[in-house]
Amino acid sequence: MRILVTGADGFAGRHLCALLREAGDEVVEAHGPRAEGVNSDALNFDISDEAAVRAAVERARPEGVIHLAGFSSVARSHGNPARVFAVNALGAVNLMTAIRGSAPEARVLLISSGEVYGPVLEGTRATEEQALVALSPYAASKIAAELAGQQFHRSYGLQVMVARSFNHLGEGQAPTFVVPSFAAQLRAIRQGTVPPVLRAGNLEAIRDFSHVRDMAAAYLLLLTAGAPGQTYNVCSGVGRTIRSVLEEMLALSGVSARIELDPARLRPSDIPSLVGSPDKLRALGWEPKHTVTEALREVLDEGTARGP
After folding, report:
1. What is the 3-class SS of the chain, one letter each residue?
2. What tens digit of pLDDT does each residue of 73-89 get?
3. Which residues of 256-280 are buried (b: 16+ CB within 10 A; e: fewer)?
4. Whole-angstrom Cα distance, residue 85 to residue 144?
5. What sign results for the dihedral spanned by CA atoms 294, 300, 303, 304?
6. pLDDT tens, 9-58?
7. What stretch(es) of the chain map to CATH 3.90.25.10?
8. Which pLDDT does position 273 carry in this prediction?
9. CA–CA separation, 280 vs 282, rounded Å?
10. Closest by Cα among 275, 206, 178, 210 to 15
11. Does the global pTM surpass 0.85?
């Protein structure tokens, strides 16, 4: 299948493109307008630019589309809601409009987020039928993108599926996210360049973590076997606190450090517990093949390889 992957230069995008090529698919990578040195054959455009998106889709003529491009930081979304909506919501509309015009038979997977559920009662798991509650501009923009996808499916017959992805970990994630941030601090402490103090935000929040390669496998499965008009959680179904993740990283790294709360790392409206049910995805045959511990080792080893 000829597959257009937007956000191919991002964290999950790089792992996904590698998996697609291993599976024998032809991959057309779409990068942001300022991406450099990743793939000279990639299409570079701003997803919020309607004309640029239309031209890119006309050139790609995809049979399948996996839409990963977007503003991905929940914390930073509070500082620029307009840009978040322009990229995440309007960007999805631009893409589907272009697909409707140039590749109306293509199967389309929109990548949303478990953040759209808002708080999930501790000890329970969110299902796809649960009501959506936006506590950040990021979540609100993803809900808007999902609604647009449903509208394009119902009104124009586009084969649109939605994947609600929960937290994923592994090599190549930006240092602004929590686990790579911990890894960078642990590296600096181990090298002796900073005191043995690790700064963190809310460590009691419960999240659902998966390995990024398992997420990529889920995306490929959904693109080929998902039902148009349907939404699927992509998650482990297991909740654990951020503190437990940090404690495991400390044990894996062999570093001793005092943990201090950093108010700057707290979100304006954090979600105490966010765990999803993967049952609908598992019914299609998806099973995770990698552990969170594997992902944590990769992140820690990556930081060591990079050096200071």
Report:
1. CEEEEECCCCHHHHHHHHHHHHCCCEEEEEECCCCCCCCCCCEECCCCCHHHHHHHHHHHCCCEEEECCCCCCHHHHCCCHHHHHHHHHHHHHHHHHHHHHHCCCCEEEEEEEHHHHCCCCCCCCECCCCCCCCCCHHHHHHHHHHHHHHHHHHHHCCEEEEEEECCEECCCCCCCCHHHHHHHHHHHHHHCCCCCEEEECCCCCEEECEEHHHHHHHHHHHHHHCCCCCEEEECCCCEEEHHHHHHHHHHHHCCCCEEEECHHHCCCCCCCEECECCHHHHCCCCCCCCCHHHHHHHHHHHHHHHCC
2. 998 999 999 999 999 99
3. ebeeeeeeeeebeebbebbbbbbeb
4. 8
5. negative
6. 999 999 999 999 999 999 999 998 876 655 668 899 999 999 999 999 99
7. 172-207+238-275+290-306
8. 96
9. 5
10. 210
11. yes
Backbone angles phi, psi at 119, to 5 degrees: -65, 135
207 close to 274: Cβ distance less than 8 angstroms: yes
Q: 291, 20, 74: which is closest to 170 by C-alpha?
A: 291
- Distance separating alpha carbons of residues 200 and 98, to the nearest angstrom: 42
Structure tokens at 187: 């590296």
CATH architecture label of 2-168+209-234 = 3-Layer(aba) Sandwich (3.40)
| Count of C-beta atoms within a 10 Å radius of residue 129 | 8
| pLDDT at residue number 303 | 54
Contacts of 151 (CB under 8 A, 6+ apart): none
How far apart (Å, rounded) are the C-alpha atoms in residues 47 and 34?
12
Its CATH class, for the domain covering 172-207+238-275+290-306, is: alpha beta
